[in-house]
Predict the structure.
Amino acid sequence: MGRALALVLVQAPLALGLTAAYAAGACVAALVDRSGRTTRAIGGAWSRLLLRLLRVQVRVSGLEHVPGGPAVYAANHASALDIFVVFGHLPVDFRIVYKKSLSLIPLVGWAILLGGHIPIDRRNSVRARRSIAAAARRIRGGTSVVVFPEGTRSPDGTVRLFKRGSFGLAIDTGVPVVPVSLIGVKAVVPHGLTSVRPGTVAVALHPPVPTAGRAAGGAEALAEEVRQIVARGCEEARTA
């Protein structure tokens, strides 16, 4: 762990410089390109650079399962590193549903907000519903949405209960849900980003789960169905 921490400390100035450059460029791009696609592309390049700097390799499988249109991508959440992995290696135009407090971070938070990503305040049910409505507008406009339905990071990497809100969103908009297993993240960052170890993270995309014909009240059942697929993908990788 000491070696990994030293690695992060040595790389921190470069990482901070890259992040500042990304955020500034993304903010400008968001003002010029209101669609958010340029900001999304800059975010992907930034994430891949940071992962390379931290000597974290990412292996993606299941690209054949990416739908031809918008979808809700639902992934497990073990670390802040998940954000970099998804931004850098999910090959679709998407907006992410993220914790509102991140918007307050200078430059980075502003870039995320200006890029059309969707802040959510889960402590306020009215505001949370507004965020879900904003996500629905993104989907109806042809853009996919990425969610971490556990709502918070799992401290031990176990895939925990999925909250139903984002699955109600999928049913309401009629788009499929693509389960995404993020595998090996805890081994790379066992105690947060200050403990990054060189290694490999796997992103496994599973076949889309259709929502056509599901009743609005079926969000909880859909959430559990997707959670089981994500958890099974993580477990099969650990025992392989």
